[in-house]
Amino acid sequence: MLVAQGIVTKLQDKEDSGKVSDAELQEARCRSDVVTYSVMAEAQHFHQHRITDFRGYVQTYLNAQIEFHRMVCYVFFVILSLV
Question: What is the DSSP string of 17-77?
Fold first, then answer.
């Protein structure tokens, strides 16, 4: 992710100037990796739920449409039998 890359780049700049040690830079990379993977996992989780919810909404909508058209056909058959 760009945020984590930005942090690591800033730390590398500080390392080059001697303000941060290799160990601190490695620790920052490790923490940024954890944050990056956590955010990616959350995004994937919400995406899966969104797909599942959308599928359910569409299924409910289509079933209601089928029921409506069945009722319209039934009314037409009743009217046809009265003629």
Answer: TTSS-HHHHHHHHHHHHHHHHHHHHHHHHHHHHHHHHHHHHHHHHHHHHHHHHHHHHHHHH
